[in-house]
Amino acid sequence: MDDMTKGIKQARRFLVEKKYSKVIHLLTPQIFLYRNNPEFHEILGQACLRSNDFGGAYTYFQRVVNIDPKNTTAKLGIAYILVRRGRTTQALQEWLEVIENDDSNSQAKKGLDLIKSAPEDRDWPEWFSNHPTDFLLPPTGFAWRPIIRVVSAVVGLSVILLGGFWVLTTLQKPREITRAGGEVLLFSSDTQTIGSSGSFSLIFTEAQVEDILNKTIDAFEAYQDNRVRFLINRLQHSNAAEDIKTKTLLLQDHLAPPNFVDPFWYPELREVLNTPNPEQYQGVFTLVSGKVSNVVQLDDRIRFDLLVGYQEQQVLQAVIPVQVFFPVELNGGENVEIIGEISLIESTVTMVGFELTAASIRFTR
Predict the structure, then answer these.
(1) How many CA atoms lie within 13 A of 346 on its CB side?
(2) In CA terms, which of 211, 235, 286, 354 is 20 to 30 Å from 129?
(3) What is the pLDDT of residue 167?
(4) Residue 181, φ and ψ in degrees, nearest 5
């Protein structure tokens, strides 16, 4: 079995076990490798859908349909997202196409019945917020492994109790970096931490550099990749030794973008706006919410302005330009949450000094 097949099988197993964040962690860094694999995008879409990342789910399901136009799972997922947004006509079309290919599909039939029996003025987003809707979701399969693990855990506990307490003590090991790629952070005790050449905007003592390195290890081991990016930036723009800068940069190949499933550290907007050292946020992701404005569809991307804090049209905190490189339907006036990568640009009277490249978009009320 090749590595690609193993990766998809493992992701499928995580999906049926409802470990959606693990699916996203496993698959997101491999998008380019699997770009033409419909099963890959279907699994990732399912994980996003069940994590309430409907923008991400729609993107992945749409990719599946582009590759495999009759894929039932993807069309069920798209229909679910459409009806949540009140676009019942398009949702009906998706369900009808599913039934055309599989006239016994229960999710599609239930979806049709739901819309046909609903009053014309139903507020679908509100209805979905107050009613169970799992019966409309595409199936993921049945998880056998949790049952096996329970049995294994009972057997394992018995072995430990019979074997004695000494088993536990002999298994204890000193702290080490276990995540792949983290070995670059292991420096010898005589490593020089401070450099004297080059230009830098942040000046640290040896103790401060060592502290940042320790925090980087902790964040990397905890899969807090966004914080790792920030800490690497601080070292890159400081008087830290070149060897430290070079090796910590190698971590970037092992970092995944954040998502709406797992809690992640991110800089608050006011920090980015008011810092005297904005370069430490270059390439770091932040989370902002606001109202979509000035949408422009280009050949390879979508551009729009995010009116931060303006959801209720009362207080405008900032106007941030955003670019999106994945397919998503955006309309002016919609309220969204965005996980976006910060790129520094020249500020203007109306625009802040950075723009965001969206990694994920979630529609809000």
Answers:
(1) 1
(2) 286
(3) 32
(4) 95, -20
pLDDT category of residue 336 using cuts at 50, 70 and 90: very high
User: What H or E segment, with its residue span, contains residue 142?
Assistant: none
- pTM over cut 0.90: no
pLDDT in tens, 14-70: 898 888 888 888 888 777 778 889 999 999 899 999 888 888 888 889 999 989 988
Hey, CA dihedral for 270, 305, 363, 139, is it positive or negative? negative
Please tell me the class of the 3-136 domain.
mainly alpha
Burial of 172 by CB count in 10 Å (0-12 exposed, 13-18 middle, 19+ buried)?
Answer: exposed
Strand partners, 286: 340
The Cα 77–Cα 94 span in angstroms is 9
Report residue 242 as tokens: 């070149």
Residue with tokens 């005297």: 276
DSSP letter for 78, please: H
* Tokens read off for 196: 């004297």
Distance in angstroms (rounded) separating the CA atoms of residues 96 and 79? 10
Domain 269-364 belongs to what architecture?
Answer: Beta Barrel (2.40)
Read off the tokens for 44: 């990732």
158 with 152: CB under 8 angstroms?
no
Question: Between vectors from CA 232 to CA 229 and to CA 235, what angle results, nearest 5°?
Answer: 155
Q: Which residues of 296-333 are buried (b: 16+ CB within 10 A; e: fewer)?
A: eeeeeebebbbbbbbbeeeeeebbbbbbbebebebeee
Confidence check: pLDDT of 362 > 50 = yes
Q: Tell me the sheet residues that pair with 358.
A: 340
Residues 6+ apart with CB under 8 A from 257: 28, 225, 285, 339, 341, 359, 360
Burial class of residue 351, CB neighbours in 10 A (0-12, 13-18, 19+): middle
Q: Enumerate the domain spans of the chain.
A: 3-136, 182-254, 269-364
